[in-house]
Amino acid sequence: MLKRFIQKSFNNAAIYAVTVVVVIVSLLLGISIGSLSIPFSTIIDIFLYQWFGTPLNSDIPTNLVQIVMEIRLPRVVLAFLVGASLALAGAAFQGLLKNALADPYTLGVSSGASVGAVIVLFFGIQLPFVGTFTLPIVSILFGLCTLFLVLLFTRAVERKMSVETIILAGIMFGAFFSALISLMIALTGEELRQIITWLMGSVAMRGWNYTMMTLPFFLIGSLLLLWNSRELNAFAFGEATAAHIGVDVMRRKLVILTGASLLTGSAVAVSGTIGFVGLVIPHMIRLVCGPNHRLLLPLSLLYGGAFLVLADLAARTIISPRELPIGVITSLIGAPLFAVLFFKRMKRKT
Amino acid sequence: MNVLEVNNVSYRYHDKMVLQDVTFTVQKGELFGILGPNGSGKTTLLKLLSKELSLQTGMIFLNGKPLVSFSQKELARLVAVLPQSVDTTFGYTVKETVELGRYAHQGSLFPKWTEGDEQAVIKAIEQVELLDKMEEGIDQLSGGERQRAYLARALAQEPDILLLDEPTNHMDIAQQMKLLDRLSKWTKEKRLTVIAIFHDMNLASLYCDRILFLKQGSVIGVSEPNDMIEESTLRNVFGAPVRRQAHPVVPNPIVTFLPEMELPEREKELRDRLTIEKSHERIVVTTSQPFKVLSSSLVGAGFQWATHFVNRHVSKDYRCDDAEEEMKQYLRSHTLDVKRTIGMMTAVCLEDAAYVYRKEETFSLFTIVTAGIGNAVDAAKAWERDESAKGVGTINIIVFIDGTLMDAAYVQAMMTATEAKTKALYDERILDPKTNTMATGTSTDCIAIAASQMNTVFDYAGTITPLGKAIGRSVYEATREALRRYQQRRGDDQ
């Protein structure tokens, strides 16, 4: 018994150790590779210099410090936060809805949040008191509203809320909101190119502002979800079972949906719609570590972040010096996986 | 003490009344069964108890407190539920599944997994005997094992009350018995209260302390199985024809179902349904359809369905330690199915057997008697005799009846036949050679009452009833005739 317990803890510790290494390496890779290649050692030197005041190696030019600290690092951190948010939100949606095909993108939450973001960007709206946080807040609210619309609609169609119906409703609302965005773009005309890049998802040239803008929502959303990992496990056995073992179903459901929407909305606000991250990452982790949310949620967060850092790296190096939208990379990987999952699911049913 | 009190609960779903004015109480440590046909509101009632549905009218009290005053978590510490089916979930191990049961015992803000939690989980898994499958995926278990894993999860909640919705649904009969044995044991040992929906009336009758019958949302009755498992009640509640019987060991009734069958033999004369083969070694009556028999015979005693009736001749000095087994072997060697055969022995000459056929208005009767008085005995003085040697039966009576006999009729038919036999002995002036008083029978007599269980129904077969009269007359006549032939042959021999 004790042995098994230790074994289990050790396994978890080993899993986390590997994960942390993967995260650090992907972050370093993200900073290192680019039009100007920067070796890992230099990056670490720069960090030590910046954060701990150790003297900088004399061969490192000061503009390199600038590049690392003001261009590469914020981009990598933002990519990490966005990826972590989307993957964690995806894992939560999947657990709560008992639906392996659910993620912020397939549920239409991303599109809904985009509408909010586009409205803010193009009408230059600024809400009182919240200042620069207007963008993520509006995005989050739009995302949350979309989610409830999708769920209410699904429920109205079919009380048992089957997986396919939820996804269909999500795609339907997503299409509608995409059309709304296109309409807005067509009407404004001017900054067409920029908004299209944004729509396809990008973490380029956002600087620290954007990173700081999403950070509070990321922290709150992540904590809300990680705090509800036991409840998510219970929901995996159905809402009735969750209630039987003592879960306050309505409240917890609301908390989880809010947490996931916070993450999705704030991610969309700063990076546009990046699809399928929330689908790919939790699925891979489930394959390796099982469905227990106590492990699944933190790992989704960490690997989601690392994945998007690497996806961003690919996006800007494949056809360098030009950049691909990051959403192209994630969709290229995610859409086929979605197809496989969907195929397997329908096969199992027949 | 009442753990649960349900007062005037009604529930309406859209415009349909699912439950109407349901009132009952459950005591601590009871195994309480809820039975009723499909759509009678059983599951709705259980869902109201588990707060899965909210009360519309009426009150439910748990340990004296209104159910609504419990938070979901407080309730889960008191009541655990094992639903009929749980969504299958992929990838969770048995242990992870059972661990969920501890949810209600942990803090909300900073849940901490304590040694106590761990122990409760292991104990629960142990109780359902799944320790060896603890790390296996719940989706890899068989239906019965999965049900047990969910039961363990419910037990890990350490509840006072366990609510079960047809718990034995996915189990084979051995697993069902085992589960119910366990539940029954826990109600006694741990004072656990179990409230369960049952589908199988017999399981409910055997295991429940009390049973509640629901029909169209109303309570038909709540009481002990002995009071509730009544033919008329069951017919009223389920609308299915059943017959109540006594369980061989447990003092609770069991029911059997009466299927509607085509009985092509129904129209045939009793005589045409019987084939009789006579030889000096045995008389074999073969029936074209099984007869239900109550007999004291060597093979097939008690109640039995039979198609073959064998009266076998053995020599006067037949001795065997295990006569029954020897008889079975004899039957087998003559390709007779032992389970379908009534086997008797006699030392008298089979040619002296008497056959009497009677056709009455609503039934017919066929009686076969072989009689010898070598062991004639006066039952009233038998205690004065000291020998205990067991000879072979000397008066064997088989009565075939075309009719449906209730249990009482069988027993009365036995009595009537015995009385008629005794009277025949009396009128033939047969004496017990030891006591020199009138003999009432011989020491190893045998009687079989065989009824076709079709056509006219007979509740009784006492001497006042037409059936009793016919039995008495047939047996009397046949016995006298057989005795006369026996004595005649003895006279001839000497």
UniProtKB/TrEMBL annotation, chain A:
Q: Which CDD domains match?
A: TM_ABC_iron-siderophores_like
Q: Provide the GO biological process annotations.
A: siderophore-iron import into cell
Cellular component GO terms held in the UniProt record:
plasma membrane
Q: Which domain of life is it from?
A: Bacteria
An example molecular function term from Gene Ontology annotations: transmembrane transporter activity
Membrane topology of this protein: Multi-pass membrane protein
InterPro entries reported for this sequence = ABC_BtuC-like, ABC_transptr_permease_BtuC
* Predominant place of localization: membrane
Q: Which SUPFAM superfamilies does this UniProt record tie to the protein?
A: ABC transporter involved in vitamin B12 uptake, BtuC
The UniProt keywords, alphabetically, are: Cell membrane, Membrane, Transmembrane, Transmembrane helix, Transport
User: What family is it from?
Assistant: Belongs to the binding-protein-dependent transport system permease family. FecCD subfamily.
Q: Which PANTHER family match?
A: ABC TRANSPORTER PERMEASE PROTEIN MJ0876-RELATED (PTHR30472:SF25), FERRIC ENTEROBACTIN TRANSPORT SYSTEM PERMEASE PROTEIN (PTHR30472)
Please identify the protein, giving its name as recorded. Iron complex transport system permease protein
Q: Which organism is it from?
A: Thermaerobacillus caldiproteolyticus
Give the source lineage, highest ranks first: Bacteria, Bacillati, Bacillota, Bacilli, Bacillales
TrEMBL record, chain B:
UniProt xrefs under Gene3D superfamilies? P-loop containing nucleotide triphosphate hydrolases
Which CDD domains does the record match to this protein?
ABC_Iron-Siderophores_B12_Hemin
Show the InterPro entries listed in the entry: AAA+_ATPase, ABC_transporter-like_ATP-bd, AdoCbi_amidolase, P-loop_NTPase
What domain of life is recorded for the organism? Bacteria
One annotated GO molecular function: ATP hydrolysis activity
Q: What's in the keyword line of the UniProt record?
A: ATP-binding, Nucleotide-binding, Translocase, Transport
The ABC transporter domain sits at 4-241
- Please give the name of this protein: Iron complex transport system ATP-binding protein
Organism of derivation: Thermaerobacillus caldiproteolyticus
